[in-house]
Write the structure tokens for this entry.
Amino acid sequence: MIKLTAVERSALRAEAHDLKPVVLIGESGLSEAVLKEIDTGLNSHGLIKVRVFGDDRDARIAMYETVCTQLKAAPIQHIGKLFVIYRPKSDVKTEKVLRKTGGGMREVTIVKPSPSGTKRPTVSKVMLKGNERVTAGGNIKRAKPRQTSAKKTALKKS
């Protein structure tokens, strides 16, 4: 299990407040499929909530401890039938993918001033592909391939 300080746990509890449960554990209890689903949730989100539909408090505590030890996660909070579990996301796979694809999708905030200048500017968040850019006017354009001169390409070939 990961050991966290009280301040780190408190910050993670605050961050998890608005989260919805990602995994629901039913009457069959903690099976291999449920553990795999929790592991997938931790890999993609890092911080997740899990809801247990059992009434036995001791069984819920045992499940909470089992999940944290088997998946090497940090226990953040256990309130009633909800668990909050944290494990840092491993970005090794995503870094390799981003290097190969040239960046993938990214979120950009575009702020356009009002035409009259007296009203509030319009703010919009847009997802851009790797080959797109935002112009000074706030429009989205595809990046063109860099032009090379005919002389330089002829020199490289010979």
Q: What stands out?
A: The radius of gyration is 24 Å. The domain at 6-86 is CATH 3.30.110.60 (Translation Initiation Factor IF3). The beta strands are 21-25, 47-52, 74-79, 82-86, 106-112, 122-128, 132-134, 140-142.
